[in-house]
Amino acid sequence: MTGTLVDWTLLGHVVLVAVLACLGVVAAFSIGLAALSFFRDAKRSMTIRVSSAVVAVVMTGFLVAALWWAFELITKKS
Amino acid sequence: MHNTLLLVIVVVVALAFDFTNGFHDTANAVAPTIATGALKPRVAVALASLFNLVGAFLSLKVAATIASALVAQNLVTLPVIFAGLIGAIAWNVTTWYFAIPSSSSHALIGGVIGAMLVLSGGHAVLWSGLFSKVIIPAGLAPLVALIAAAVALYSARRLTAKVDRSTSTIGYRVGQIGSSSLLSIAHGTNDAQKTMGVVTLALIANGTLSSNAATPKWVVFCCAIAIALGTFFGGWRIIRTMGQGFTCLTPQEGFAAQIASSAVILSSSHMGLPLSTTHVATGSIVGVGVGTPGQAVRWRLVGDVALAWIITLPAAGLFGAISYYVAHLIGGTFGVLVLALVAGAYVWFLVRRSRRDVINSRNVNDAWGEHPETIEVKTVVAA
Questions:
Q1: ipTM score above 0.95
Q2: N or C: which end of chain A has fewer CB within 10 A?
């Protein structure tokens, strides 16, 4: 009976998109945080520190894009 | 038919509902932020209030409906709107008093359905819509959020395993400021828009506005201010439940929970399956508790909250039905006025009683009193 009341395909898509979006943002933030920590660690090699800085910048860009996408979703549906 | 006094009463009550919606739902955005110390309580609430205001002014497309796809819109009258709002306010304030997070949207839907059942009977309610758009999503929302939060937290733990604790703590606290603000904007957009729709519908039902007229600017302004003020008031009792009651939160867990809430709310809304913000936020917080090995989750409290969710629709419906019946019995605008005063007295009574056990910005983070229950027999507390 629930098959006629609930669009299970839609629900599956919602779960998938929500989990992936959440995972993506949290992972990007965590990677950025780890990269920042490595960059600030004076004991690490210059190569690692520079690479970490690049990773941190890339993750920041990803997060800004995610934030822009979220804002678009909020304003589009309103 | 024009009835200015009745219209004024309905608009005032709608703004009162918007206010209760504000303080009732503050916790959804700020509870983890306050619990982890990312922001001081008053600052967190002020920020949430500001972003609710911003979100409310982003509400450009207002639908002049109430409980659309759930009740026959052609039967909705000013007294029905009034009774629905009274039912919702009564339930909102009751659950606030008992410090239980519950859905304001479901309360409004329940109140309107209760009033419609008294007015027109069961055929005025679109039962299949009620199941598919309200009841089933209400059950699924916390589960979806729980899964998203648990998965996100697992990835965060693995990715920051080598990061020193102080950097991690500071980093996630900063992240929580952003996630909390995003949730507040989303809430302001959604919920203020709902009340704008109700007020616009009341204006149309009274003949003050034509059916295809745009929402007046004063409606947008008043609803935005009402929800922001309610948020600023801060539902501290519910903030405490969500921040301290279900589980202990670290900044990492708080961040994962808030991002999970944002992702679920925005993606589900975008894909045409809007879910309750309260249900999602609660599911996320429980999800991070479940996703942390050895962490205690107060399942008894979770059960109490789930029970409150189950009875939200019928309870608000009962309040709405009684309100409509009594107002109709007394008759006319006078009946509506009497009901408004009775509802005001009930709210005043609960606010007075709440003074016996004051929860405010100073004690909202105090340790939870009861002994925590766990699903495994292990001891407590991530750092």
A1: no
A2: N
